[in-house]
Amino acid sequence: MGKFYDSSIVPEHLRRKFDVYDRIKKLGMDLGSFEEDVKDLKGAGIAGIIFHESGLVYLSGHGYGPGQMYDEPARIKEGQDAAEWIANSMIKRLHWGLTCGGEGGDLNDVIYTVKALGMVVSTDVAFNGGPAVMNGFSQRWQSVFGGGKGEFAVDGEDESYGGVHARSAIGGFTGRFSIEPEIIIAIPPELSIAIIKNRGWVFPLPPEVLKKVSAARG
Questions:
Q1: Confidence of residue 218 (pLDDT cuts 50, 70, 90)
Q2: Residue 1 predicted with pLDDT over 80
Q3: 12 partner at 20 to 30 Å CA-CA among 18, 19, 24, 163?
Q4: What angle do CA 140, 146, 148 make, to 5 degrees?
């Protein structure tokens, strides 16, 4: 487990016993590399992650998918696959956001998931499949962090429920993609404070911070 998670306030009966990275490996997820996934904020208008000293971590949304959604099973499946791809991408982003500065944290230090919002692209006023599309995201998140709808659940139960989240999933947006989810998670405040003190509250990193972090890695 993560060293910050081990000393967190999670009660014993809800404490995660599995290694998140073992699940990621079994799911065939690619976490990329420092060189590819840790960038600077030069010219950026928004951040990918914001850390708050309370331990709340806010991840910006990411849009992906073949386009407009409509209530046809094959199209819904395409949207779910896109939502799962986004979950993979955001977990990779979170991994590097937690680990790049060498503070000692990683994905095993995620205590629980707070809230997800899924904005599903559809101009069809009769479209009812927004929640079904967003399930592709939520189920992958639970597969990694724990939850009764994840791939490692048995009869609706998992070893942990750290991936279960409050959620809204709504359709009616325009765009050349299918869905854009965003999510808020909780990590131990001690880890968030260590990150902020060492490199600031924002990821990607300010240019001078990236130089410092890269130099520290050797």
A1: confident
A2: no
A3: 24
A4: 85
Spatial neighbors of 88 by CB under 8 A, at least 6 apart, are 29, 30, 140
CB 105 within 8 A of CB 187: yes
Please give the helix or strand (H or E) that residue 58 lies within, else none: strand 56-59
What tens digit of pLDDT does each residue of 49-90 get?
A: 999 999 999 999 999 999 999 999 999 999 999 999 999 999
Angle of the 130-145 helix axis to the 73-99 helix axis, nearest 10: 40
- Domain at 47-217, CATH class: alpha beta
CA triple 98-102-104, angle to 5 deg: 70
Q: Which residue has the tokens 């949207």?
A: 79
pLDDT tens readout for residues 131-141? 999 999 999 99
